[in-house]
DNA sequence: TATTGTTATACTCTATAACTATA
DNA sequence: TATAGTTATAGAGTATAACAATA
């Protein structure tokens, strides 16, 4: 039964796991978009706000993290700023840089957003500690490959 | 007791696993968008085309599967049809319905797209059969919770 | 009357290129 | 000259509402 993994032609088990991962990805995304929508945020706005709730970041850095062009960040921050969730601050060290930062209200929304994510939390509650440890290690290994 | 009734606060391990799942989701999405881009397809176009590569579907059904409004499907199918990857066919049973179907070329592109997905396949090659079985069971349980 | 697909409209996200103000 | 952020532009996805053809 212990057939060696064939890289060129994935075996049935690998294909099944790939499909399961696809299902998890779909569920996670739906859940995220739904949680964002409950706060009248788009997915991009929610992701950017979540980043800023940890620490203020230059526009350039936000573009790198969101994997989009810096010009797009301008608009997303504009809309969040218009709602009072984010503000632009000067960077004392470099006057070219603008630091985007979550306001108090923005941090509150980001926290509610995180707490509103049901999937990837509720399902995990059905697993034992040992199983969660096992899952953690497997996911870690996948991400470092 | 003055304690609030059973508010679940995820432990550190659960939070770590949630974050790891988020990382996997991000990696999977990047990989999918990249694979789509290599065929000059957007993510939505690639997802729709992949669905049609299995079987022709009514526009309405596509909207349900993509979780978007039917009016959006019109445009996505329009663009795929303009490139000869998809075609609209009448439904003999109901003249209101239009069946979207992948052309031969469309099926070929969908196949290449699927084969081009590196993540969720290469990382799995680094796991043993036993580990993949374990991962499969854990993911299954998460999805049925 | 209800349903299917489309059109029209408006908003957001996206990449590209040109611009400004700093460095 | 190079970099950070912005603006302008165009294409794509999205939801909403109104519409024609068909059931």
From TrEMBL, chains A, B:
Domain of life of the native organism: Bacteria
Record keyword Zinc present: no
GO process annotations (BP): response to stress
Domain HTH marR-type as annotated: residue spans: 14-144
InterPro entries: HTH_MarR-typ (IPR000835), MarR/SlyA-like (IPR039422), Tscrpt_reg_MarR-type_CS (IPR023187), WH-like_DNA-bd_sf (IPR036388), WH_DNA-bd_sf (IPR036390)
A GO term, aspect molecular function: DNA binding
Protein's UniProt keywords contain DNA damage: no
Keywords, in A-Z order: DNA-binding, Transcription, Transcription regulation
Gene3D superfamilies named in the record: Winged helix-like DNA-binding domain superfamily/Winged helix DNA-binding domain
PANTHER family: MARR FAMILY REGULATORY PROTEIN (PTHR33164:SF99), TRANSCRIPTIONAL REGULATOR, MARR FAMILY (PTHR33164)
Record protein name field: MarR family transcriptional regulator
Organism expressing this protein natively: Streptomyces naganishii JCM 4654
Lineage, opening ranks: Bacteria, Bacillati, Actinomycetota, Actinomycetes, Kitasatosporales
């Amino acid at each position: 039964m212990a057939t060696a993994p064939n890289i060129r032609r994935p075996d049935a088990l690998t294909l099944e796991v790939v499909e399961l991962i696809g299902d998890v990805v779909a569920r996670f995304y739906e859940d995220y978009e739904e949680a964002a929508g409950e706060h009248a945020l788009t997915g991009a706005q929610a992701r950017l706000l979540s980043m800023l709730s940890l620490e203020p970041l230059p526009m350039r850095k936000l573009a790198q993290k969101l994997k989009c062009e810096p010009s797009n960040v301008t608009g997303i921050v504009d809309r969040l700023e218009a709602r009072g969730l984010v503000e632009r601050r000067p960077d004392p060290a470099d006057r070219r840089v603008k630091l985007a930062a979550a306001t108090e209200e923005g941090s509150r929304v980001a926290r509610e957003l995180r707490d509103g994510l049901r999937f990837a939390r509720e399902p995990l509650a059905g697993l034992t500690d040992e199983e969660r440890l096992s899952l953690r290690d497997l996911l870690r290994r996948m991400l470092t490959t």
